[in-house]
Amino acid sequence: MSMIMDGRSLRLLHAFLMFLQHLNPALGFISGVGDANDRCIERERQALLEFRKGLVDDYDMLSSWGSQDQKKNCCKWKGVHCSKHPGHVLELDLRGDSEKTQPLSGKLSSSLLELHHLSSLDLSYNDFNMSQIPEFLGSFNNLKHLYLLEAEFGGTIPYELGNLSHLESIDISANNFNNVANLQWLSHFEAYDWADIVNRLPYLTSLSLSSCDLPPIAPSTHTHFNYSKSLTIVALSDNHQNSSIFQWLLNFNTSLVEIDLSSNQLRGSIPDALGKMNSLESLNFDENQLEHSIPKSFGNICTLSSLSLSNNRLSGQLVEFINILSGCAKNSLEMLDLSLNQITGSLPNFSTFSSLKIIYDGTNNLTGTVPKGIGNLHQLEVFCVSNNSMHGVVTEVHLSNLSNLWSLDLSLNSLALQLNKEWVSPFQLRIIYLSSCKLGPRFPSWLQTQWNISILDISDTGISDKIPKWFMELPPTLQYLDVSSNQLEGQFSHILFPSKMTLLSIAANLFLGTISSVCKITGGVLNFLDLSGNLLSGEIPDCFMHWRKLVILDLSGNNFSGKIPTSLGSLSRLQILLKFVDLGNNGFSGQVPGWIGEGLPVLNILILSSNKLSGSIPFELCWLKYLRILDLSLNDISGNIPQCFNNFTAMAQKGDFYSGIIGSNYTDSYAYDYEGVEEYVDDATIVMKGRELEYRKYLGLLKIINLAHNNLTGKLPGEISSLLELVVLNISKNNLIGEIPQMIGQLKQLQSLDMSRNQFSNEIPSSMSRVIFSKRLGLVLHNLSGKIPSGTQLQSFDAADFTGNWALCGPPLPNKCPGEETPNQSDQPTDHDGNEDNEKDGDEFEKWFFAAAGFGFFIGFWGICGPLLFKSSWRGAFFLFLDNTKDWLYATKLAMCMKRLRWKFKNQG
Ligand SMILES: *[C@@H]1O[C@H](CO)[C@@H](O)[C@H](O)[C@H]1NC(C)=O
Ligand SMILES: *[C@@H]1O[C@H](CO)[C@@H](O)[C@H](O)[C@H]1NC(C)=O
Ligand SMILES: *[C@@H]1O[C@H](CO)[C@@H](O)[C@H](O)[C@H]1NC(C)=O
Ligand SMILES: *[C@@H]1O[C@H](CO)[C@@H](O)[C@H](O)[C@H]1NC(C)=O
Ligand SMILES: *[C@@H]1O[C@H](CO)[C@@H](O)[C@H](O)[C@H]1NC(C)=O
Ligand SMILES: *[C@@H]1O[C@H](CO)[C@@H](O)[C@H](O)[C@H]1NC(C)=O
Ligand SMILES: *[C@@H]1O[C@H](CO)[C@@H](O)[C@H](O)[C@H]1NC(C)=O
Ligand SMILES: *[C@@H]1O[C@H](CO)[C@@H](O)[C@H](O)[C@H]1NC(C)=O
């Protein structure tokens, strides 16, 4: 079962995997040491020591803080910065690293108040275990900067912070504030919302309250304040703001430079009045529900350089947007992101936008061709129009002057690239997404001149060619290579892979030979390996020890032989992520390896179908409690079905998607807060193309056991009926005997049940009548007898569903049960051909299984990434990671296509 997915899904997955691999426990405090020359004031030193006492410093981050003689000068302590003569403590910088690997925790002692001169306090990225931000912080008369982002504070934002009358910047983003409590608490005062705190801070220049669960601002109760004249940055991303916030923002209309209201609940039109903000440079309303076009006034914001409106409901012709921005804004605009809207029309000529560097117009309803005028945007660095309905040809005329271009994404359109064989590209691209464009049939020669590529996706581009020499010397910078679904031909062993590859997919091509060269990928960061659907052969090399981060392994549909390598199981002592293993459709022989149960404990999907595996099903497989899909069909497996399938708890538990995730080292502690999962799932489905099935509907529900076509003997163990969420059960074509477990009717989620071609003896258990099958049953039971239990569902099926059960009687079959015959009914049994496969049933199963292949991806992806994203701190770190790495800018943008994932940290200090 090959797992080809479109480029979009893949790159999203990849971005997250990269993020995971970035997590590095070795980082320490970022801050420097104190100023060396100034003796600190004894009172302040005592206050700091008292403060330290309250803290839990498990990682000895404050080892330089001490009372011994050589440590007496507190101005030299880590994170302490003093003034000169006398040495008053001015700054306390105890910011942890953004992964919080060595956090401070414990209690914040009010002894700090002794630091009368303190002007800056930074406790970000520590772990204060959901405690409240202490109210005493509101009493620092001289505090100008307060940074408490991602410090695991909880409870409410103390109103006292509004007493920090000298505050210039505050960032308390991404804690765990409780919005309801917030309101209750505030109501003790004569103030009703968070904005009142802010309104009382006349010197504020920077306000960052992202992910603070802030309730919507109350409309226009804020007239009696003296608003800060200096507020330049407002970052309120990922809160609950509605359009009432616009009015409040206008109080700062002369000073605001940067506004981030992404991931809120802004609806309707963007108000024209915002165009009055005459110093605005950056506006981010990503991920809201804004409609219509942009206001005409925006064209007159002569300072506007970045306009980001991705993932809204904007509509209209793209040319209208461009016309509006053609005022003085056209000279300043560098970044325009309109992706993920419903914008129509063709790509207009941006030629007069002389500063434009970045265009994101992906996932809209754009039609038409790529205008030649694009070729005049000399500054252009990033051009993305993926996933639209554009057509036509892109030629040298479009590209020859774009010497600054480093990211090109034309994927998922009907575009063709026709570049002369001799054409010399003016650019060195780092990111290339051309999935489903037409590039072939020859392998493009210009690609072979790109030496800095880190991401290359030319999947499904109609290339039908021998692999060029370039493959024998891939750029060392290459980390992501997807050439799937072409007709590339050549010896796999000739490809020289860079050691730091993270993703490799050559699925559905014509690669030949053995794959030992893949072992050159020794960088330890490979997380996705898909070689499915080629002509590869030989044994699988024993180099899994290099691939500790591997999550998805798909080698299906080749001619591999030999044993399944034990190095796959040797990962057991390492940190294992492998969640998806598909070795189906090969020639593997030997026993079903029992060590899989021990070695790959978080496996979600195990597909070993269509091989030559023999022996019995090892009981160790039952240790795979997160398993959702087990497919051992079409082998020569014999013996009894182990009586421990009830251990597959993921198949027994309610359909939440994430029950399968808990248990991986990364996600253990993040397995909560799944509210809104459905939303994510919805959006995930957007990124799939060309699938007819409604993944969304079944996503998270799909749980499959397929043991068909083996030589299993003995009874079907009753334990199977405890897998309450099982959707597909296929045990057909074995030699099972005895009774069908009575309790099988408990499996209320079953959509396809195939028990045909066994030697079962009993009647259909009466419990089956309670099963509510929402789809066609696909029930093929063999050698059953007696009356089909009456119950609306079973009766509503086709007689063909009961094929091969000669002794069955009663509706929906035409033959009546003994004693129920009516005189005018024929006594003859109908001719059900029990020896032929039920084709319809087969189709049904195909469908399910096809779905399963898609799900493999989702489970792999969400299994790892989902929980992290619910954990705000990790979300922040993820985007920070991406933001800091230019190569991944695109990945950020892509990741941002997903609802609520778009949350981003600004002003990290
Ligand atoms: C965090 O708080 C919880 C509940 O308030 C408490 O049980 C737990 O011990 C605290 N953990 C630490 C490390 O202080
Ligand atoms: C904050 O200021 C208010 C008056 O605006 C005062 O009543 C209150 O005591 C102050 N709180 C603190 C903690 O200083
Ligand atoms: C606003 O400023 C004026 C003059 O400085 C002052 O009299 C008034 O009390 C202030 N209003 C508020 C609500 O702080
Ligand atoms: C925003 O929410 C507040 C509080 O729920 C409500 O009073 C106000 O009417 C809302 N404004 C808009 C524009 O929906
Ligand atoms: C945009 O395309 C989608 C999918 O093709 C379609 O459902 C939608 O109606 C289109 N919207 C507009 C405004 O054309
Ligand atoms: C069920 O799985 C656990 C490990 O998850 C294992 O210790 C136990 O032996 C298994 N039970 C059976 C009956 O195999
Ligand atoms: C998780 O990883 C850490 C370090 O990477 C390791 O010390 C720990 O034993 C692992 N835990 C499990 C359950 O694998
Ligand atoms: C199936 O197993 C039985 C008993 O274990 C054996 O006699 C028979 O030959 C096997 N059939 C096949 C096709 O392997």
Automatic annotation (TrEMBL):
Boundaries of each Leucine-rich repeat-containing N-terminal plant-type domain copy? 43-83
* One Pfam entry name: LRRNT_2
**PROSITE patterns referenced in this protein's UniProt entry, alphabetically:** LRR
Gene3D superfamilies reported in the protein's UniProt record: Ribonuclease Inhibitor
Q: What is its main location?
A: membrane
Membrane topology of this protein: Single-pass type I membrane protein
From the UniProt annotation, give the residues forming the signal peptide: 1-28
Locations listed in the record = Cell membrane
Q: Where is this region: Disordered?
A: 813-840
InterPro entries, per this entry? Leu-rich_rpt, Leu-rich_rpt_typical-subtyp, LRR_dom_sf, LRR_N_plant-typ, RLP23-like
What keywords would UniProt list here? Cell membrane, Glycoprotein, Leucine-rich repeat, Membrane, Receptor, Repeat, Signal, Transmembrane, Transmembrane helix
Membrane spanning segments where?
848-870
Keyword flag RNA-binding: no
Q: Which GO cellular component does the record give, naming just one?
A: plasma membrane
Task: Please state which protein family the record places this protein in.
Answer: Belongs to the RLP family.
What is the protein's name according to its record? Leucine-rich repeat-containing N-terminal plant-type domain-containing protein
Look up and give the organism this protein is from.
Quercus rubra
